[in-house]
Each structure stands twice: as structure tokens, then as C-alpha cells.
Amino acid sequence: xxxxxxxxxxxxxxxxxxxxxxxxxxxxxxxxxxxxxxxxxxxxxxxxxxxxxxxxxxxxxxxxxxxxxxxxxxxxxxxxxxxxxxxxxxxxxxxxxxxxxxxxxxxxxxxxxxxxxxxxxxxxxxxxxxxxxxxxxxxxxxxxxxxxxxxxxxxxxxxxxxxxxxxxxxxxxxxxxxxxxxxxxxxxxxxxxxxxxxxxxxxxxxxxxxxxxxxxxxxxxxxxxxxxxxxxxxxxxxxxxxxxxxxxxxxxxxxxxxxxxxxxxxxxxxxxxxxxxxxxxxxxxxxxxxxxxxxxxxxxxxxxxxxxxxxxxxxxxxxxxxxxxxxxxxxxxxxxxxxxxxxxxxxxxxxxxxxxxxx
Length: 359
Description:
Elements: H1 5-14, E1 40-52, E2 61-78, E3 104-111, H2 113-126, E4 131-136, H3 143-157, E5 162-167, H4 176-187, H5 190-201, E6 208-214, H6 217-230, E7 238-244, H7 250-259, E8 266-271, H8 276-284, H9 301-307, E9 311-314, H10 326-329, H11 331-343
Parallel strand pairs: 1-5, 4-5, 4-6, 6-7, 7-8, 8-9
Antiparallel strand pairs: 1-2, 2-3
Helix pairs in contact: 1-8, 3-11, 5-6, 6-7
Organism: Bradyrhizobium jicamae
InterPro entries: AB_hydrolase_fold, DUF900_hydrolase, UCP033909
Keywords: Hydrolase
């Protein structure tokens, strides 16, 4: 059952992962050769089920699906902190942009599978990193959206990781047809995510993996982890999974997490009770409660969370205009928590202290 057309349209407007900041529709990933003192270079390794773009060199990968996993690497130049608002992406008005004040693509290249593995090893060695982080984006993301958002997340959070993006073929459009399309594609993307995790897990340069998903990307992540567990397999280096604003039915989530058994990685939920996007997603999906906007102190959520030993971070108190992307905008939430724990060698579930943002 769907909500009324007016509610559905409103839902799709606010379900977008990225901010409403205007950005170029083409050419974003065309590299710029201009170097600026104080700018930061953030390399993002990519595994994607998108097809190569045939119409826009600056798109790199399109919204069309591919039957095979493709690989790449994009290095994003982020302007000095004094010239930008931390927690935001400064899109250029027109590519390639000004690296003094804009996010700019410093380099972009396609890789084959072997080159992808070598790039992980090289980056881990060059940056003295033994931990990888795999990020799964959500609904309404173009490829360049996902790359720039992840670069912002890693940079502003000062995360000591090898960053790897899993990009699935979201349509990158906010309309009812695209939402239904994206959900269908998400439900078909668990297998390639498992394949990517296996590739990262087998890399000798990686000692530990953290998996972070956002919104509809958490549906893919849940499916991949459940699929792996149901087949009796494990991803031995995967230690932490962070579900950020998950657009997933709560009962489905708890059921599948429970079926993974005790060998599953530690799991953290990052939610906001005022997440309007997820409340509207609930309406579109026929009234099923979404994990990302529950009140964790109410039943039946409280008991179910305790039974599954999930760590919950309630970000409601942080405020801001966009609760659905709050975790990426606020340095004190997901980014700050992950930076502190990864830097100290801790896992998601090791800190049992009660803080303002953790329950």
C-alpha cells in the first residue's frame, strides 16, 4: 500500500542522502591539475555494480546496472578547513572548480580486479593504515554524490582507514518511480557486496574492516551479512558494522540479525527520532516501522535491541535541518565516534559508557 501522491512526493524530496546544495550535473569527476597549499587529498577506492558512463567522462559510472563488478579510484581534493564549513560538501559551480574553496577531483581512473587489490595494499602501506572502511550509500545517489560524500566523511572524521566505496546503481533521482526502482536494485545488491567484502578480507594489507551503510544502503548491508551467515561463512576481518539512519523494517532487521548468530560482527545503530525522511518512508512502505527513527527506550524496541546486544547512538539531540544525514554533518556523532575508537584500536561494542549520544 502506498501513501497519497502528495505524501509520496514529499517523502521522496527529503529521502535524498545529500544536501540540497546545488551541484553540477556533469563533469564533476574530470580531474584538475591545480594544486593548492593546505588542501587535503582523499583517495577513495571503488567497487561498483554501475556500468561505465558512455556519455559523460566526468560521471565515470552511470546509473545503469552492470552484470559484473567494476573497480576504480578517485582522489578528491578538499579545500582547507578555514575556507569551508566542516560537515558539508562544497560543490563547484562549474567543473573543475577552484580547489581553494571547492571539492575538486584530483585524479580518477578505472582499475581491474588485480589493480584494485594492489591499490588497497599500496594505500595501506603508504598511509600506514591496516584498517579498511567500506561505505554503502543510500537512495537517490549519483556516483559522484557518493564519492564526494564519502571523501567528506573520511576527511572530517579524520578516520584512520583505507576508504572503499561500494556504489550500487541508484537512479540518483527523487521521484516515486526511482524510489521503487532503487529499492528493487538494493534487494539485488547483496551478492556483489559480499564479493567486495571477500576481496577486501583477503587482502594481506588489511587487518580489520569496518562497514558503514546509510539509509537504503543498510538494506543491502543487512542482506549481505544475513546471506553470508546463512551459508555458514564469515568475513573474518569484519569487526564492526554501523547502520546509519537505516531505511529498513524494524522487525525484518531484528529477525535477520538474530539469525546471523553469535559469530556476527559488532553492530551499532545510529538513529534520529525526528527523521522525517524515514517517517515518510514508513508511510510509503505501508506503515512498517523503520529502524532509523525508533525510540530505543520504548518497547518492543528496547527489549529487542538488548536481546541482540546492539549498541545504539541516538542522535536526536544534535538538531540541524536534515536529520536523515545528521550523522555525516555532525563531527561529534558518527565521525567522531569512529575516529576515536578506530584510532584507539577499539571496537564498536567495547565502550559500555552512557554518553549524551550513546545508549
